[in-house]
Please model this.
Amino acid sequence: MDSTYNDLIAILIIIGILFAIYGLFMIIKARILWKGSPDDVIRARAFLNKRILDRNFMLIFIMNFLVAAHLFLEYIYIYGLPSGLEQYRKQIIIVYILLPISSMLLLILLANNWLKLLSPPK
Model:
Protein backbone atom coordinates (compact mmCIF):
# COMPACT_ATOMS: atom_id res chain seq x y z
CA MET A 1 0.00 0.00 0.00
CA ASP A 2 1.25 3.47 -0.81
CA SER A 3 2.48 6.03 1.69
CA THR A 4 -0.37 8.53 1.10
CA TYR A 5 -2.90 5.85 1.96
CA ASN A 6 -0.97 4.88 5.10
CA ASP A 7 -0.74 8.56 6.08
CA LEU A 8 -4.52 8.89 5.68
CA ILE A 9 -5.10 5.83 7.86
CA ALA A 10 -2.73 7.23 10.52
CA ILE A 11 -4.50 10.62 10.47
CA LEU A 12 -7.90 8.96 10.83
CA ILE A 13 -6.68 6.88 13.77
CA ILE A 14 -5.22 9.99 15.46
CA ILE A 15 -8.55 11.80 14.94
CA GLY A 16 -10.31 8.82 16.51
CA ILE A 17 -7.99 8.93 19.52
CA LEU A 18 -8.55 12.68 19.94
CA PHE A 19 -12.34 12.18 19.73
CA ALA A 20 -12.09 9.46 22.37
CA ILE A 21 -10.09 11.68 24.73
CA TYR A 22 -12.43 14.64 24.22
CA GLY A 23 -15.46 12.37 24.68
CA LEU A 24 -14.07 11.05 27.95
CA PHE A 25 -13.54 14.62 29.15
CA MET A 26 -17.14 15.53 28.31
CA ILE A 27 -18.53 12.39 29.95
CA ILE A 28 -16.55 13.04 33.14
CA LYS A 29 -17.76 16.64 33.17
CA ALA A 30 -21.38 15.52 32.68
CA ARG A 31 -21.00 12.90 35.41
CA ILE A 32 -19.73 15.54 37.84
CA LEU A 33 -22.72 17.74 37.03
CA TRP A 34 -25.02 14.72 37.38
CA LYS A 35 -23.69 13.89 40.84
CA GLY A 36 -24.19 17.49 41.96
CA SER A 37 -27.79 17.78 40.74
CA PRO A 38 -30.86 16.68 42.66
CA ASP A 39 -32.64 13.69 41.08
CA ASP A 40 -35.96 15.49 40.75
CA VAL A 41 -34.31 18.37 38.86
CA ILE A 42 -32.61 15.93 36.43
CA ARG A 43 -35.89 14.08 35.81
CA ALA A 44 -37.78 17.31 35.26
CA ARG A 45 -35.21 18.72 32.85
CA ALA A 46 -34.84 15.45 30.91
CA PHE A 47 -38.52 14.69 30.47
CA LEU A 48 -39.79 18.22 30.03
CA ASN A 49 -37.42 18.85 27.14
CA LYS A 50 -38.73 16.67 24.31
CA ARG A 51 -36.16 18.05 21.85
CA ILE A 52 -33.25 16.69 23.92
CA LEU A 53 -34.91 13.29 24.26
CA ASP A 54 -35.68 13.14 20.54
CA ARG A 55 -32.10 14.08 19.70
CA ASN A 56 -30.73 11.47 22.14
CA PHE A 57 -32.88 8.72 20.63
CA MET A 58 -31.85 9.74 17.08
CA LEU A 59 -28.14 9.78 17.98
CA ILE A 60 -28.43 6.36 19.63
CA PHE A 61 -30.25 4.99 16.56
CA ILE A 62 -27.57 6.29 14.18
CA MET A 63 -24.76 5.00 16.43
CA ASN A 64 -26.38 1.58 16.45
CA PHE A 65 -26.47 1.59 12.64
CA LEU A 66 -22.81 2.64 12.44
CA VAL A 67 -21.74 -0.11 14.85
CA ALA A 68 -23.75 -2.68 12.87
CA ALA A 69 -22.11 -1.52 9.62
CA HIS A 70 -18.68 -1.70 11.28
CA LEU A 71 -19.36 -5.26 12.47
CA PHE A 72 -20.52 -6.22 8.97
CA LEU A 73 -17.23 -4.93 7.55
CA GLU A 74 -15.39 -6.78 10.34
CA TYR A 75 -17.10 -9.97 9.22
CA ILE A 76 -16.10 -9.33 5.61
CA TYR A 77 -12.54 -8.56 6.70
CA ILE A 78 -12.27 -11.82 8.68
CA TYR A 79 -13.84 -14.06 6.04
CA GLY A 80 -12.51 -12.26 2.98
CA LEU A 81 -13.92 -9.82 0.52
CA PRO A 82 -16.13 -11.16 -2.26
CA SER A 83 -14.11 -11.21 -5.48
CA GLY A 84 -16.14 -8.33 -6.97
CA LEU A 85 -15.19 -6.03 -4.09
CA GLU A 86 -11.47 -6.77 -4.00
CA GLN A 87 -10.74 -3.73 -6.15
CA TYR A 88 -12.31 -1.51 -3.45
CA ARG A 89 -10.22 -2.87 -0.57
CA LYS A 90 -8.63 0.51 0.31
CA GLN A 91 -11.95 2.34 0.27
CA ILE A 92 -13.57 -0.35 2.42
CA ILE A 93 -10.76 -0.12 4.98
CA ILE A 94 -11.19 3.66 5.15
CA VAL A 95 -14.95 3.26 5.72
CA TYR A 96 -14.15 0.54 8.29
CA ILE A 97 -12.03 3.06 10.23
CA LEU A 98 -14.45 5.96 9.75
CA LEU A 99 -17.44 4.10 11.19
CA PRO A 100 -16.23 3.94 14.82
CA ILE A 101 -14.82 7.47 14.53
CA SER A 102 -18.27 8.64 13.44
CA SER A 103 -19.81 6.76 16.36
CA MET A 104 -17.43 8.54 18.72
CA LEU A 105 -18.42 11.88 17.24
CA LEU A 106 -22.07 11.02 17.85
CA LEU A 107 -21.22 10.03 21.43
CA ILE A 108 -19.59 13.45 21.87
CA LEU A 109 -22.80 15.07 20.60
CA LEU A 110 -24.79 12.91 23.02
CA ALA A 111 -22.55 13.94 25.93
CA ASN A 112 -22.94 17.55 24.83
CA ASN A 113 -26.74 17.17 25.00
CA TRP A 114 -26.42 15.88 28.56
CA LEU A 115 -24.04 18.71 29.48
CA LYS A 116 -26.63 21.21 28.23
CA LEU A 117 -29.33 19.43 30.19
CA LEU A 118 -27.33 19.22 33.41
CA SER A 119 -25.74 22.67 33.31
CA PRO A 120 -27.41 25.29 35.47
CA PRO A 121 -29.69 27.65 33.54
CA LYS A 122 -28.07 30.96 32.55
